[in-house]
Amino acid sequence: MAVLFLAAGTTHLFASFLGHHTYGPVVLIGLGAAVIAGSVVRAWWVGRHGHAAHHAPHLEARRGAGSARQVEVRPAQPPATESREEDEQVLWRIRTTVQDTPGSLAALCSSLADRAVNILALQVHPLADAVVDEFLVGAPPRVTAGELAAAIGSAGGTGTWISRADAHDLVDIPTRMLTLAVRAAEASELPAVLRGLLGECEIRWMPAPADLPQEGEPDGTTMRLPDAEGGVLVVSRPGLPFTPAEFARAHALAEVAIRLGPREPRWTLMLPNGAEVTIRRAGRQDLAAVTAMHRRCSPETLYRRYLAHKREVSQLDSLLSARFGYTLVANTPDGDVVAMANLMWDGSTAELGVLVEDAWQRQGLGTALVRRLIAFAADADIDTVYAIAQPGNTATIRMMQRLGMPLDRRIDNGTLIITVHVAHAAASSAVPRQP
């Protein structure tokens, strides 16, 4: 109100002043012209600068985008080789023990994420007073095992175990267990199945002690499992203790092998001379027929196979035992064994041996047996298979060459050792697959 009264009083005083002077109209006309000129100038100014202000946000956005491109693209653009390395990932398996408290897993994940490590799979193994976390991770090539261990340690992990992994480890646990259970239905494959579940480990067979309990639990790095053919399988994994979950899974696979019993796959093979043989899995029940075949073989044939002129019956019994390897035999329609091939494993390595009776040689029978053994080795996650022969044993050399797989040869103390890297061949689909 005060402003209104002040404006009214000022206007009245100004009008009274003009009314008493002769130049009053001139002043009014001048003020009107000034107001009109001021309005025109203001309209021009607002029209010009208002238009610029309307487009200013778009211009600033463009300038901002341009600046971002300069900062983001030019200085930070890596070389092509470096970009490809960042796109690649190295697979690692990590196992560590942490306190069973809220946030412990989150701390591990955060520490790995700080090093651009991607967690692909996770298993949690509960213990009495702690938790074992097992990760399958993908890390940039620049990240080393030592850096991974440091990241885990800084987040509270102890007893950390780290090893390289491969694409086979990407299979989820339920799928892997179902696959292993199918293979465990063949009791003789149980050692290979256990290695597929537990990784690198040592498996030995021993007679079952009288005081062995029906149900047990792992003793640190060793567990004992019932064998389908009697006795006990002693599984050892130095440096990496078994968890209760691993023991439960291994025991379940052993029970599958016991309950379903052995299966005996058979293949019928027609030889170039028109004869027909049956290839099948052998066992200790074939000891008499295998011994008879050895008696029919010439000393030269036996020497090429064993680098000795004879083989004791007890040694043949070991070759036929499913606890030590995988053996195939070829039977004629009348039941005679005319060929035998053995795959005797030691961890992830296996020795290959083939014996074909003299009258049945040069018919491709040995090659057919070896092809099936190599396919079995690939399924059993055996990395390398090697054969021992004399340097002049051209039959064995040609038989291995017919596999169509890369071979390594070396001479050790006058003995030729031919090695097949099954894992590499399996990755390149070079492993022979026959029905």
Automatic annotation (TrEMBL):
> What is the protein's given name?
N-acetyltransferase domain-containing protein
Q: Annotated region Disordered: where?
A: 61-88
CDD domains according to UniProt: ACT, NAT_SF
The protein's matches in InterPro entries, at most eight in alphabetical order, are given as: ACT-like_dom_sf (IPR045865), ACT_dom (IPR002912), Acyl_CoA_acyltransferase (IPR016181), GNAT_dom (IPR000182)
Signal peptide segment: none
ACT domain location is 93-167
Stretches assigned to the N-acetyltransferase domain = 277-427
Cite the SUPFAM superfamilies for this sequence: ACT-like, Acyl-CoA N-acyltransferases (Nat)
UniProt cross-references to Pfam families, sorted A to Z: Acetyltransf_3
In its UniProt entry, the species of origin is given as Carbonactinospora thermoautotrophica
- What are the protein's GO molecular function terms? acyltransferase activity, transferring groups other than amino-acyl groups
- Gene3D superfamilies attached here? 3.30.70.260, 3.40.630.30
